[in-house]
Structures are given as structure tokens and as C-alpha cells.
Amino acid sequence: MLLESYLVPYLYEKRFYPKLERRGNKLSTIRTRTGINFRDVTKLLAPSTNLRSFGKLFNLEVKKATFPFSVLTSVYVLRWPKLPTDLAVWKSDLSGSPSIGPAELAEAQKMFEDASCQNLGDYLRAYLKLDVDILYLASQAWRRSLKQLVGIDFVESSKFTISSLSNLAGQKCLSRHLRLGNFFPNNSQHYRLLRNGMRG
Fold first, then answer.
1. pLDDT for the residue numbered 180
2. What is the predicted pLDDT for the residue at 6?
3. pLDDT of residue 94
4. I need a surface site. Which of 24, 86, 151, 195 has the fewest CB within 10 A?
């Protein structure tokens, strides 16, 4: 949403003429004619995977923070000099997660202090930067894991959906086990890849 609102007009202004790809009403890809692509990472993840579980999957030292999105009713709220202490306002309307507990509030307060935040706006910047760090670290760990396990790097192979990765892995497995006259996945590993990659 932010990229579409702010980046796309800027790219047109700079004459990069981006192409937008949508799935329904959601933007999935922004491409520029210079070869720079912005993609939705959720297309590479299982439907129930969020950023918190993505980071946990690779045992990252940093973990996703919490933010009281329900208090963001105007830009003036960003000037608050400290975080709200009422646990009820920390319930996320974006993810539908329940209110946080005292331990999560203490972690948020610690992050507020460690990042030298002067107000809620500073905390929002630190929160969003942490999200980007987690996304980058988890994506790089996932790339290394895929390369080690199945010999595929989704960036090098330009496969940015679960289905396209599954298809490529299946094709690689088939080519390794292909014999003259063999047109059927009679290899158990290949069959498992095809079965796990099915959608719909």
C-alpha cells in the first residue's frame, strides 16, 4: 500500500514507468524497465505465515515487536512522549491478535528506551525498521536453506511464488532421475515435491 501510494508516483515522475501486477485487488509486483522488481514476500510463504513466525522459523536473534495500532487515530498521536500502558489498546486490529501481556509491554518499553525514542513516532520508525531487518535476515536464511537442501535460489532462478518454486524443484528432480522412456514421476522424492506443491 505504501509503495503504491508513494513509490509508484515517484517512479513515474523519474520516468521509470513501472508496471503493476495485481492479484484481485492486491498489488503483488511492481516492475521497472531497468529490471528492479518489488515483490510481495507472502507469495513465497505458506498462507498462515506472518513475519513473527517467519523469523522464528529460522531462529533469528531479533524478534518482531508490538505496536499499539489502535491508538493511531491521528498524526498528533505520534507526538506522545511515551508508550501507552493500558494493555487493551495494544490489541492489533491489523492482525486480529489478542492484547499483549505484561512481558510484551516490558519488551516494548525496553525497545523504546534502547532506540532512544522521544515519542510514539520514533517508536513507530524503530518498529518498522525492525520489521525490515527481520524480513531481510529471514529471507537470506531461507535462500541459504533452499540452496543447501534442493540447490535452488529463488532470486537467481527468478521464482517468486510457492508454486513456481515447487515446479522448478520437481523439474530438477525429474531431470536428475530421467531415463530413456521415463515420462512419469516414479521417484518418491519427485512425487512428494509434486504432491506438496499442489494448489487448489
1. 58
2. 86
3. 60
4. 24
Among 197, 141, 144, 145, smallest CA distance to 169 is for 197
What SS3 state is found at 194?
Answer: helix
Q: Are residues 72 and 132 in the same domain?
A: yes
Cα(20)–Cα(23) distance, integer angstroms:
10
Nearest CA among 176, 166, 173 for reference residue 190: 173
63 and 121 belong to one structural domain: yes
Same domain, 61 and 131: yes
Q: How many domains does the chain have?
A: 3
Q: Are 130 and 58 within one domain?
A: yes
Averaged in consecutive runs of 10 residues, what is the pLDDT profile of the chain (200 residues)? Answer: 83 89 82 83 78 89 90 92 89 64 91 95 95 92 85 80 76 69 61 66
DSSP β-ladder status, 19-23 and 37-39: unpaired
Tell whether 145 is covered by a domain. Answer: no
Nine-digit cell at 18? 513501472
- AA letter at 157: S
User: What is the separation of C-alpha 188 from the centre of its chain, rounded to a whole number of angstroms?
Assistant: 31
Q: Which residues partner with 22 through β-bridges?
A: 27
Percentages of the chain per state (helix, strand, coil), in multiples of 5: 50, 5, 40
Q: Are residues 68 and 110 in the same domain?
A: yes
**Grid cell listed for 184:** 512419469
Q: CA-CA distance, 70 to 198, in Å (whole number)?
A: 38
CA distance 168 to 52: 28
